[in-house]
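fwd from M.: "can u put these together and see what the complex looks like"

so here's what she sent:
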Amino acid sequence: MRILLVEDELMLADAVRDHLQASGEAVDHSASVVDAEIMLRGTNYDVLLLDLNLPDGKGLDLLRDLRRSGSATPCIILTAQDQISDRIEGLNAGADDYLVKPFDLNELSARLAAVSRRYSGNPNPFVELDGGVEVDLAGRSVLRDGAQIDLTSREWALFDQMVKRPGQTLSKRQLEEALYEFGAEIESNTVEVYVSRLRRKLGKEVIKTVRGVGYRVEG
Amino acid sequence: MRILLVEDELMLADAVRDHLQASGEAVDHSASVVDAEIMLRGTNYDVLLLDLNLPDGKGLDLLRDLRRSGSATPCIILTAQDQISDRIEGLNAGADDYLVKPFDLNELSARLAAVSRRYSGNPNPFVELDGGVEVDLAGRSVLRDGAQIDLTSREWALFDQMVKRPGQTLSKRQLEEALYEFGAEIESNTVEVYVSRLRRKLGKEVIKTVRGVGYRVEG
DNA sequence: CGCTTCCTGACACCAAGCTGAACGCAATCG
DNA sequence: CGATTGCGTTCAGCTTGGTGTCAGGAAGCG
């Protein structure tokens, strides 16, 4: 597996590279966003490991640009402990998972395996759901019976969470965190309202209600 | 599934224990870190439910020690609403998920299933029954002829009891205890009604009536 | 056949969930 | 710069679905 690690803390970068190479992965390392862009242009990576705190620019922009250009490369973001909003933004910008520093190297391996497994099954980035709905997770686009459906940013934020965990029931609380800042607990039925709108756009079958727990989309 | 609940609020602890026992889990309870350490030494638990606000010490340290000693036991932490930093630290210390108090008991069950599935190396063992019915006990899911069947929480509580003791005939009394709180027994035919509903969903063959005694599911 | 036990359709109640409508706000347009 | 438009959020009233109860019928058993 070919991995691009974007990380400016060299000690950490070395540790990660050693660990991953020990288990047979091919790891390229870049310490800045500029370098990373160049390397991404030249090589097709299987996974992107992206630190969000880089000296020469926002790692988030790198990820957004990547997604905007249509890349589906799975991305795991690395954030410091206190940068909570980064994590949310990262997931919204198209990241697939996150790790909070300092993290256990074995956990990194586990997350890598999970993320790559999720993508290896389907070479095309479209996930097919019930009701003739197809989703391009990286490209932020949704088709229903072949026709493009436009989702607003909040609608997407919610839907994306569910599609990325097919078959798993997500609580309203979990989903609310995709909408707001981590920890913001607002007493409201906003999630229900968005589910309602999504169902109107995508059909009733896609999002299933699990009473007393939350919502789920099938794999 | 064997669960260790570390929680000092007794009301909450009782509610959690009742709910989980009703769906057939084995729940041990400890109200302090010291006790928890002792219990962890003596038993192999499948999941650890850990409140972070304990009187006699940091629940976080318990978790860290556990991880440091090499244990991979899945852990869900319970935190109060306003203690966001606890959640971050918890996830950092090796927790797998968290719940914010007050939480819905059904949501707890769902998270437990998700966490345990994540750890048991993906697919859970399916128990095969008569009539083309398959049951995933840990994942709380039932298939009939390959199609997913949704059970309500009460239906599951009953069915789970029977599936866990295949070949054994359970009295209505026993089954009633899976439905309600321990003790308060009202004379009614609720169990019969639920058996009827289950049969409609799963077919007639799965649950056998043992006249004058109770019900039974074949292994 | 008569008695007991069990089954199940129907109903009422309540909580959970759904959604139309209104409002605020910000961005955009004329 | 006011008007317009689209999105996010809230609220209230409505619908849906889970639960427990009952009554009448079916099935087992002597």
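replying to her w this: Chain A has a mean pLDDT of 80.
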